[in-house]
Amino acid sequence: MANTGWDEFEIGAMLRTFNEPIENIAGTLQEDRPYSENSSFRASVADWRIEKPVFNKDYCIDCQFCWIYCPDVSIISRDKKMIGVDMDHCKGCGICVEVCPTNPKSLLMFEEKADEEQAIANWPTKEEKEK
Amino acid sequence: MAFDKMELRDVEVWDGNFAAAQAMRQCQIDVVSAYPITPSTPIVEGYAKFLADGYVEGEFVMVESEHAAMSGCIGAAAAGGRVATATSSQGFALMVETLYQASGMRLPIVLNVVNRALAAPLNVNGDHSDMYLGRDSGWIQFDAYCPQDAYDLNFIAFKVAEDHDVRLPAMVHQDGFMTSHTAQGVHTLDDDTAYGFVGDFKPMNDMLDFENPVTHGVQTEEDWHFEHKARQHNDLMTKVLPKIQNAFDEFEKLTGRKYNIVEKYDLDDADVAVVCMGTSVETAREVALEMREKGIKAGVVGIRVVRPFPFFEIQEALKDIKAIAALDRSSPNGAPGMLFNELAGALFNTDTKAMLSGYVYGLGGRDLTKKHLTELFTELQANVDAGKITTPLQQFIGVRGPKLAFL
Amino acid sequence: MSEMKKIKNLKEFSTSADRFEGANLLCPGCAHSIIVREVLNATNDDLVLSASTGCLEVCTAVYPYTSWDASWIHIGFENGSTAVAGAEAMYKALKRKGRLKQPDRNPKFISFAGDGASYDIGFQWISGCMERGHNMMHIVLDNEVYANTGGQRSSSTPIGASATTSPAGRVSYGEKKNKKDMVAIMAAHGIPYAAQVAPNKWKDMVKKIQHGMAVDGPVFINAVSPCTTEWKFDPKDTMMLADLATDSLVFPLYEIIDGHELNITYRPKNVIPVEEYLAAQGRFKHLFKDEYKHLIKEWQERVDANWEYLNRREEARV
Fold this sequence. Notes:
Strand content of chain B: 15-25%
Strand content of chain C: 5-15%
Distance between the termini of chain C: 30 Å
Helix content of chain B: 25-40%
Number of helices of chain C: 12
CATH architecture of chain C: 3-Layer(aba) Sandwich
Order of helices and strands of chain C: HHEHEHEHHEEEHEHEHHEEHH
Number of helices of chain B: 13
CATH class of the largest domain in chain B: Alpha Beta
Strand order of the largest sheet of chain B: 3-2-4-5-7-6-13
CATH topology of the largest domain in chain B: Rossmann fold
CATH superfamily of chain C: Thiamin diphosphate (ThDP)-binding fold, Pyr/PP domains
CATH superfamily of the largest domain in chain B: Thiamin diphosphate (ThDP)-binding fold, Pyr/PP domains
Largest sheet of chain B: 7 strands, mixed
Largest interface: A-C, 54 and 52 residues
CATH topology of chain C: Rossmann fold
Oligomer: heterotrimer
Shape of chain B: globular
Radius of gyration of chain C: 19 Å
Structural class of chain B: alpha/beta
Shape of chain C: globular
Number of strands of chain C: 10
CATH architecture of the largest domain in chain B: 3-Layer(aba) Sandwich
Helix content of chain C: 25-40%
Distance between the termini of chain B: 62 Å
Strand order of the largest sheet of chain C: 2-1-3-4-8-7-9-10
């Protein structure tokens, strides 16, 4: 869109979310939706991150706290299972890690450049409660 | 819910407000969101009564301010249907923010503006201050000179505004009290003919199409804003007047009543001409005829479409006139009048040798009398005779106190 | 009528297909989008949405991107509520006239606005919408400040908060006026439903939103939205702040039915001292100086008194 001229877009600066009609949007998962180039679903804010969440499914209990409290629709849950983080849309706020109730946590923040496999290999072990 | 059609006589005695309300009823508007203000209140009241009597099937939302009235119109228009309202003066001023939003979002709303002065000092009578306030807002502006025009131009306004090549909101102006509250014979259309002329509303980018969600009213900054504003201006400049002409032609075929983008009266052989709007046109025409009896070849130009300004039509109309007076019914507050400036801009690069002078008149409902116009035409003729402008370029007429003139 | 979406637990809720998208421009850790997601996911019905000018609006519809998967409109700062009211009126008109493209839907009309756009500049417009009985919901994303423009005070800003137009300084402790009780004012319109919600209490939120969608008439919802930028806390702590807000009773969760019947919907097991809520935010940092500590005590007294008031109203069943 970057060099679009004044005569090339729809009037009123109106934007369409999808390229074609969807009969039941609430019943259609993101992967099945025909997003237009104007949906921010097609954009990325990955470069906002300083730290990134890494998901370790070994400890996950699929409680979905991370899903409900993610501000950026970046926790991908399907069929009631947490399956990963949408790294195009995650801004690295760290809320998912804070609300994760498992011990050790199933999500931890790492430097953006950290190697994921290595992070999981060196995952902390269960913390004994001090109090 | 059924709604009834109304039997009308061929000629009804209506004032401009009731004529506009009747036209709105006949257009079968889907949503009217309105707030009353003098002198346009009877439009809203008239419409409310039609609703109460079962002649309206659409929604009528009485909101808490004119700003909300236009906000509701914008929401309703974006949802996808025929929308209209009415206002005047202070209410128009309160609406101004939303006028720009309606046009920028390309929503075809029709706004009946019953022209009235702007405070302070507070005044309920007619002048063109509110019309002038709206002139950069991106709306199409039609000007009615009498109740008949107010009736007819509503149909034209819906037809043009809702055209998918246009999709711009339109105002129909009429003079407060002089038109809005003065009953005259109005030739009517029957309900079916009137609705047939305007046609069914054809939705575009409508929010109520649940399978095709749209986002209206986005933010654009320096990287996009200019292109969108340019597009809007382009469409106003290139698409609107031809559509208006088509609508006028079609309307003439249907009714025999002919409207022109620029109305020309006794202009063919005229040496001097007055350019004005609203009820002043009729007075000026009468005086022009009287001037002709005195040997002054006088003519009158009425601006029918204020925006988009009919630049070339004005050039054409005035090309052979020797002395022109621009009559502005709004205090220019530190500049020549709007009409003076527009005429000057239109004529400047042409071959015309016409002399142009400006007159500010009629503020706050002050009458423009035949005597004023007689003197004015006489001054124009004096300019012709002298071969130069013999008066200041801007004169106030009809104001008490020492002669007020500038430039 | 449409069937209410069944949301027994969080696992079931997580099968929702979001109609709000990421890669919007809201700050990392912004509670606005958490609230918006909880609201939109509370129903499967079609949505007609608006946002008044503010953080949510400028961050989710910046050309050429939209983050909305439902029809959405923004007009100005003060009139998002009326935009939706207009759309709702059009829906009624087209339904009556048989012109809806998809006539068998049950769209929900929702207007989102910040506290500035609701408590201040849009107050009259919202009041008009509530009074006229539109079938719509106005939801305030209440972060108690004009966050979009850099943190100016609104009439929702509480006493003692440092905002850019009511800054704490050598001789000032910041905002001097108490927060406007918007829920009470809106309930006083006699609307069928008004409630205060918080994103951390998602179940309470969903229940209230669904209640609001089921009633006939206007609904007002005030949602506490902890603002990482203007409340000055780490983005990761948004939910902790929301917990502190609800559990200190600074933001009690309750509903008012038909303008009078008040129900408290959440009673924290352990009520947290207001001081802890204040201490977690940079905007109240100056209150911990010796000369202003009395304000913390007064805060606690105010919160206690309000809680007492809410309890008495609930007991009274009037």
